[in-house]
Amino acid sequence: MIPRKTFEGKFPDKSYRRFVCSSLLRICMGYLFLTNVFVVLIQATRVLEIFYDVMALQFVQQLDDISFHLAKMDMLGKAIFRATTTKSYRAEFQKQKIGKKTSVFLKVIYFLNLCVLLALMAIVSTRQKRGYYQCKSITVAFGNAVWEGAVVKTPSGKFEDDWTLFYSYFNGVYIQDGEHHGRPKYREVRKYNNTLYETTIAAEIKFCREEGAWIFTHEKITKSRDSEESGCGSWLLR
Asked: Which secondary-structure segment (H or E) carries 142?
């Protein structure tokens, strides 16, 4: 901390208020950087995205420092060069002894910062476990894949294995409808109003713990007559 008398004694022509304001702005930049990192961590879906986003934030934060160094190298004009090479930018202040009250105040500020960060992390972790950040709906496009010889269970209960399955028939929106193995389960909805089917049996996308993957299933379509209707063995895609 630099007292007012020390600053004005060394630079009588400079404004102490502006000096304090610039220091507070630097602190605000640090808080904004931490906030941006926090938002990036929440919204990112891949580790590589976090890496690139944090690098971009770091670059933006250092743009003023880069510009200052370029100005000191006389690359941005003579006027800016003279402004950035004044004595005020090369001044060094002796370390000041702080009182007990100031020391306690700084420790309280550090402790409050730690508490805020831990509280935010606890809130995010709790919401994550409760599924707050899970996607409520997904849009699926299977492409032009075709499977000949799919086994279909007819309304009479018989199995027929001479059907051709066009996966593109099941393109569209799937909304979250319950959970399966601790992960959200998505059910196919009507294509014209995105509401659940009432009589038609819809396809499902869910996580299978035995397969270790997300699977696409349909209650009436299986890979073979011996597939488990309620288990993971009846997956059509994974």
From this structure: none
